[in-house]
Amino acid sequence: MDQVKIGCFIAECRKAKNLTQMQLAEELNITDRAVSKWENGRSMPDTSVMLDLCHILDISINDLLNGEKISMENNDQKNEQLLLDMAKEVEQKNKTIWTNMWVIMGASITALFAGIFVARFLIPEGIWQLVTILGVCIVFLIPCFYALKLEVSVGAYKCKNCGCEIVPTYKEAKNAMHMGFTRYLKCPNCNKRTWCKKVIKK
Length: 202
Ligand SMILES: [Zn+2]
Hints:
By secondary structure, the protein is α+β, with helices and mostly antiparallel strands. It has eight helices and five strands; from the N terminus they run αααααααββαβββ. It folds into three domains: about 5-75, lambda repressor-like DNA-binding domains (434 Repressor (Amino-terminal Domain), Orthogonal Bundle); about 85-155; about 155-200, no CATH class.
């Protein structure tokens, strides 16, 4: 899905209906900031408001997801529901993966500190204490790599230079420097290395 294209399309349809961002937001019971975010291509409308949004703008879900008016011969209700379900499914899957990643990281960081604590205070100083601390740290790396795998599998990274969305391979992501979820990646579109922010559809 091309968020920027969809954003422009939403703005276009809104103006065609003579609505301000504020008015559209009010009709949907959301903030005008959210509408502005869609139109700038920074986020997608939540599936919970998609149907209402399409209704107000007088477009189909298919039009919205494509960012343009699509003439379909059998553009019936069933088709719409199918597309909506698909979008919902992807959203739900991404949410679950993202939550799992946080749970894994939380649990393993807790275990890391618990392990170091136990080694520090319950094992007498000496070689075994050192071995235990080292062991705990090595074991900690396993969930880290797994969490990275999950992180990479959800959404994409946005190039700072051209705004293009980058989906790196696991290896590329692993080798890239990172600060939080921002990774230093090479963009295949403009060939520049920038600090790319993680973008995830929530
Ligand atoms: Zn780029």
